[in-house]
Amino acid sequence: MMRCVALIPAAGTGSRVGDECPKQYLTLLGKPMLAYSIEVLINHPRIATVFVVVAPEDSWFERFNWSEFGSELQVVRVGGATRSKSVTRGLKAMGDAVSPDDWVLVHDAARPCLSNTLLDRLIAGIGEDDVGGLLACRIADTIKSADTHHRVIETRSRHGLWGAQTPQMFRRGLLERALSAVDSEEITDDASAVEQLGYQPLLIESEVENLKVTYAGDLRLAQTILESRRDNQ
Ligand code: C5P
Predict the structure, then answer these.
(1) Which pLDDT band holds residue 15 (cuts at 50, 70, 90)?
(2) pLDDT confidence of 216, banded at 50, 70, 90?
(3) Is residue 208 pLDDT above 90, yes or no?
(4) From atom 1 of ligand 1, which residue's Cα is the shortest distance away?
(5) Three state DSSP letters for the chain
(6) Which residue from 83, 105, 184 has its CB within 8 A of the most atoms of ligand 1, so it is best to mutate?
(7) Count of domains in the chain?
(8) Among 24, 67, 68, 115, which is least packed by CB within 10 angstroms?
(9) Distance of CA 210 to CAs 15, 68, 126, 205, Å?
């Protein structure tokens, strides 16, 4: 069995949530959002190390205490201007510690509700697949495209459509090769870079609870999900 490591790009500076603080550091039940992703990944028995990519000028990371995670947490201050640049540089910063055949699970800091069950399902579902893959949800809503005035242009078929989530799990070598071949501005996830090389990543069915926090309402929803888990423990 190949080794797994995780890579969390956490070098975003903006916050559409409407706060000064970059969203990965927003407080959720007393902890920064980033801590939830680190925790679930670091506690998984197949994951050896969690690399977190922060921006070189980041002044937020050291305001929190991360010592509970020990040496399995590696912070690299190499974030770039786009998510895919941050991932590319994070992969490079792993150096010789990770081999080209090892699996890398790339997970957004903005998805704090990843559960251990979903992480298990991804790792087991990908197994030793030739390509790799990602967590994703079938689209349940009817999909409309609209003009700038919010007037509907057309209704699209949702047949066969999935919403991509993270973690996305690929071998380090393939991921590096894929990301070096794409336009970083165009790419919003790692799988699409792999697809551009002609591969077909495997979709592992996920749950909506693994939501991405983008707007203020998402933050409240994430809080409710994490609260209900804490209360059920
Ligand atoms: O902004 P968005 O939600 O798409 O960001 C997804 C993830 O990518 C977040 O964890 C964010 O911190 C990270 N990111 C990054 N470097 C950037 C932009 C975003 O690591 N330049």
Answers:
(1) low
(2) confident
(3) yes
(4) 12
(5) CCCEEEEEECCCCCCCCCCCCCHHHCEECCEEHHHHHHHHHHCCCCEEEEEEECCCCCCCHHHCCCHHHHHHEEEECCCCCCHHHHHHHHHHHCHHHCCCCCEEEECCCCCCCCCHHHHHHHHHHHCCCCCEEEEEEECCCCEEEECCCCCEEEEECCCCCEEEEEEEEEEHHHHHHHHHCCCCCCCCCHHHHHHHCCCCCEEEECCCCCCCCCCHHHHHHHHHHHHHHHHHC
(6) 83
(7) 1
(8) 67
(9) 19, 24, 18, 11
**Domain CATH number, residue 78:** 3.90.550.10
Which of the four pLDDT bands, split at 50, 70 and 90, describes residue 96? very high
Q: Write the pLDDT tens digit of every residue in 37-62.
A: 999 999 999 999 999 999 999 999 99
Task: At 232, list the tokens.
Answer: 């059920």
CA 187 from centroid of its chain's CA atoms: 14
How far, in Å, is the centroid of ligand 1 from the Cα of 152? Answer: 30
Provide the CB-side half-sphere exposure for 218 (13 A, CA): 19
Task: Determine contact, residues 160/203, Cβ cutoff 8 Å.
Answer: no
User: Which atom of ligand 1 lies nearest, measured to the CA of 34?
Assistant: 10
Per-residue pLDDT tens over the stretch 122-133: 999 999 999 999
Containing structural domain, residue 48:
4-231
Of all protein residues, the one whose alpha carbon is nearest to atom 21 of ligand 1 is 82
Distance CA 195, CA 68 (A): 37
